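Quick start: read one record
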Amino acid sequence: MVFGLALAAPPGPMNAVIAEESVVRGWTAGARAGLGAMSADALFFVLAALGLVAFVEQFPTVQAVMVGAGGVLMLYFAYGAAQEMDTTFREAADPDEDSAGFTKAFVLALTNPYQILFWLTIGVGLLETGTVDVLAHTPYLGASLSNLLIVETGSPALILGFFGGIALWVTGFPAALVAAEQRVDSFAPAVAAVSAVVLGGFGVVFIWDAVQSLVFIWDAVRSLAL
């Protein structure tokens, strides 16, 4: 569970989507968005078990296109978050729009380079007998947390605990945000603004990364042709 929490909790594009949905439309929408992101992890897990994730690793062009698509989606969702800066979840939400959080998070998670990279490397290793340094793979802080928590891999208990930790975060995080919004009336616009900035920033970075990868691949192909 610590493994799942360590990967789900750090700030990033997925938590920005969950935060925006939570403070604008309430706990149900936030939890639904979180479950959308977790569903993508579950799909990646199945693909890893079938060997398809490792297959994708052999095609860097496909990876670059997926990263670029993720960047474009993040910019689009950042625009949507910016439009909701003057909204609170106490206001009546459109039920149809409320139900879109799951799809938004699911599609975004499928193109999130962090999740793709995890399942191309550590995620595949969860299925094999061995050990894994849990906190070393925490986004942004991994280097300073290495060797603090090492667990055995290849165990059903690890897989169940991993997804249990993610489930705990994607349901508890929206609850905490909703509770805070109820105490501070200006909390929702502030979270929407931060979500827009985070999504926009990650969107630009991912698009730039995709462009660099595609340029590198093109140069490599051209040099081989020459």
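The chain has a mean pLDDT of 76.
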